[in-house]
Amino acid sequence: MNELGRALLKAVELIATRDPEVVEITLRSLWIAGTSTTFASAICIPLSGLIQFHQFRGKRFLINLIQTFYSLPTVCVGLFVFVLISRAGPLGSLGLMFTPTAMIIGQTILITPILLGLTFAALTGIDVAIRESALSLGATRLQVIWTIIKEARFSVVAGVIMGFGRAVSEVGAAIMLGGNIKGFTRVLTTAISLETQKGELEFALALGIVLICVSLAVNMAMNLIQQRF
Amino acid sequence: MDMEIVDLYYRYGSQEILKGINLKIGQGEIFALVGPTGAGKTTLLRLIDLLDKPTAGTIKFAGKDSLASPRFKLKVRRKMSMVFQKPLLFNTTVYENVAYPLRVRGYKERDIANKVIQVLHLVSMDSYVKSHSRKLSGGETQRVALARAIVSEPEMLLLDEPTANLDPLSVDLIESLILRLSREQKTTVVMATHNMLQGQHLADRIGVLMKGELVQAGKSTEVFRAPENEEVAKFVGVENILKGVVISNDAGMTCIDVQGHTIEGISNCRVGEKVHVCIRAENITLSTAKHASSARNFLSGQVKLVAFSGPLVRVELACPFPLIAVVTKKSAEDMQLGIGKKVYASFKATALHIIG
Asked: Domain containing A70 — which CATH number?
């Protein structure tokens, strides 16, 4: 068996025996991406409801702009937040550099355009008649927005899952803002990239398999949601 | 809740959809808006429901301008409900759909449950409480939509073609529910329909909307008996509309020349005036013998077409101008009506409605 095969085998073994470090890094990855997704959702879902409900000048432009940022390069987000929180930056005094908080800020910014855009598209897909029914049945403006979000819940959740998928698999912002500090900011993607460089192939492969499984699970969840409804 | 519409205009792009509508509807009244497709019925209902903004004019509820303040607008909106022509239910259970108006008004969960069950019973949908709204048939959807609209006990109910394309059972159920709400809860009902018969047997008053104008409004019997103009007459289904010229008028007793035949009716039209004579088919009596009749008008003619429909028979005559009469199946058989048969048509002067 060649070296690669052995490494693969070892990787499977690391996962099967639930190696404490693999588990720890995986959980941290899920936690950081999950927190970012939660923050981004809390911002984006109500915000896109407001954008969708109101007519204003430049609305079309705003939506185009949001869509442009779908593929925002992760390193650019990393750079932007880096400048913001570096000791000389405007938020430097908070001492956020190389902390999970910094990573969460970065990932939240990174997935905000996707979540905004996808939620907006989901809400736009809801028949105007739903909005008019709600109004006609005595709902206030905010109640109408909430009703539309509820009607679009499956597409909205699909968007949230997409956002999570992007957050959990990005490496640029995570490494620039987290710094891959062992036991503190080390997540799946940063660990994979650095372990590979160090030649620790078994460990990198184990983490890689876990990351692919996470991505698969995310996609399956999304397919399930879309098929069911 | 009573409502008054004053000089209402609605323009969409360059198109004038409603032109100068003035209308008063009292509390507990059932008012039917009738008119052909595209006349503006739905637009008018939407304006009343405060979904669209009129281009000009005001809609007053209980004497107050509906757009006086956002708060008053919400208050008015919460006192009325509209059921759209193709109602859309929320993507959830029947229960949640009907509970919605109570939820947005902040009712307690227990009161909601009681009320929802109660109204679902009214529309005979109790057994569907837990069903998903997207699995219902058209009639069921319409009934749930109606339940959802009345659960908050609105003072005014707006219905857009509430029974179009429904099965007869659903139609009966919805119609009797409308009557009941109006009688028992004094709910004001404004309904748009292109079904004249429905308008006639449900409504206290009818308004005929044509090309954005309210051409006639009045008691339903009145609109049917005395349509304002030829268009309304056609729309309310007057079978015989004859063109003629007044040749004499003696204290109301008017003689009209219709293609060389003199027809007598009652009107205050002047001599020489061009008029339309409306005669309802059911007011024309047919006979085979030229027996004496008290009817003023007596014409001989030939049967051109006999069409059976249920217990009635529609007979088209050439007198020589076309005339349509309706007789019972029994008398059609007694007279052995068939194409080419010679018959006499008679009708009273009072059966005529003359439009000047």
From this structure: 1.10.3720.10
Predicted confidence (pLDDT) per residue in B56-104, tens digit: 999 999 899 988 888 999 999 999 999 999 999 999 999 999 999 999 9
Rounded to the nearest angstrom, the minimum Cα separation between B146 and chain A is 11
With a pLDDT cut of 70, the percent of chain A lying above it is: 99
β-pair type (B80-83, B64-65): unpaired
Digit-coded pLDDT (tens) for B171-222 = 999 999 999 999 999 999 999 998 888 888 899 999 999 999 999 999 988 8
Inspect the interface and report whether the beta carbons of B149 and A137 lie closer than 8 Å.
yes
Rounded Cα distance, B275 and B353, in Å: 10
ipTM higher than 0.85?
no
Task: Name the pLDDT band for B147 (thresholds 50, 70, 90).
Answer: very high
Q: Are the beta carbons of B101 and A133 separated by less than 8 Å? A: no
Chain B residue with CA closest to A142: the answer is B104
Q: Are strands B156-160 and B80-83 parallel, antiparallel or unpaired?
A: parallel
Decide: B332 and B287 in contact? Cβ < 8 Å. no
Sheet (strand B240-250) strand order: B261-266, B253-258, B240-250, B274-279, B352-355
Buried-state track B145-184, b at ≥16 Cβ within 10 A, e below 16: bbbbbbbbebbbbbbbbbbbebeeebbebbeebbeebbee
In angstroms, what CA-CA distances link A56 with A7, A59, A60, A62? 58, 6, 9, 10
The DSSP 8-state label assigned to residue A182 in this structure reads T
- Indicate the number of domains in chain A: 1
Q: Which of A127, A136, A151 sits opposite B51 (nearest CB)?
A: A136
CA distance B208 to B227: 10
Q: How far apart are CA A138 and CA B75, in angstroms?
A: 8
Cis link prior to B320 (omega < 30° from 0)? Answer: yes
Task: Read off the pTM.
Answer: 0.84
Judge contact between B317 and B345, C-beta under 8 A.
Answer: yes
Give the structural domain span for A113.
3-228
Per-residue tokens: B55: 């281009």
Best A133, A141, A155 residue to mutate vs chain B (most B CBs within 10 Å) = A133
